Amino acid sequence: MLAAERRMLILDKLQEEKSVVVSELSSIFQVSEETIRRDLEKLEKDGFAVKSYGGATFNVHNNDMPFSIRTKANMSGKQKIAEIIATIVGDGEHIILDPSTTAVAIARALKDKNSLTIITNSLEVLMEQPDSGTWEMISTGGVLREDYLALVGPRTLEAIESYNVDKVIISCKGLSMDKGTTDTNEMFSLVKQTMLKSGGEKILAADYRKFDIVGFSKICDLDEFDVIVTDRRPTDGWLKYFKDKGIKCVYAQEKEDSDGSRDGKN
């Protein structure tokens, strides 16, 4: 295994578990503890980890990870979210997708839909045109942010404002009962705010890791969304919050709820 590949897997574990232990990683990857320490030093230098005695913790303050790294995080969760959203989107609809790794998974899950019109500022989503060629893919235009494979800027906002769509589907870096939905920076928050103004039904796609996290820049309050789609059953406190706010919550279930329901809906 190449060192870069090993570090990617270590970062994946850090994102999932928030901390790692040198001795455990040494056993998992069958390399010396010194090699693992060098890996952690590199991850710390890149801003992804904070070294601690005997291991490292995930740098929760670094939300601005490259697209290539973010796309590998919680891939199964994003797939579950995408599969749920595929049941919500109908043939012939006009939808907006944001420049997120979750949006890429959603676009792939929609491949069986016919005559979709997808408006996006994501280069990755634009490349997901199905072989059938029945989709119309519309790029917002704008200035390229290479690290996100996203188009941003005034032209992007102007393009989004010119459309009215059936559904807007966006993601976020965090959602909080007090602070609402937040993102890494003001530029992306502004794009998503503009997207939400263009939509009939507003859908937030957020995996379980985003709950109770607060990012730097606010997108909007949670009650602006009609539907929240996530990959795991939220806590009872969150489900009550959604119910009180009149927000529909749809989530993937691994096991039956205590009432025997398997529909995964609140």
Question: What string gives the helices and strands in order?
Answer: HEHHEEHHEHEHEEEHEEEHEEEHE
Q: Which geometry do the CA atoms define?
A: globular
Number of H/I helices: 10
Binned strand content: 15-25%
Mean pLDDT across all amino acids? 87
Amino-to-carboxy terminus distance: 44 Å
By helix and strand content, what is the structural category?
Answer: alpha/beta
Helix content: 25-40%
Runs in which pLDDT lies below 50 for 5 or more consecutive residues are 255-263
Strand order within the widest beta sheet? 6-5-4-9-12-14-15
Radius of gyration equals 19 Å
Biggest sheet overview: 7 strands, parallel
The number of E-state strands comes to 15
The oligomeric state of the chains shown is single chain
Structure description:
The chain has helices spanning 3-17, 22-29, 33-45, 67-70, 75-88, 101-109, 123-126, 154-161, 186-197, 236-245; strands spanning 19-21, 49-52, 55-58, 94-97, 117-120, 136-139, 143-145, 150-152, 165-170, 174-176, 180-183, 199-205, 217-220, 227-230, 248-251. With 266 residues, it is α/β, with parallel strands linked by helices.
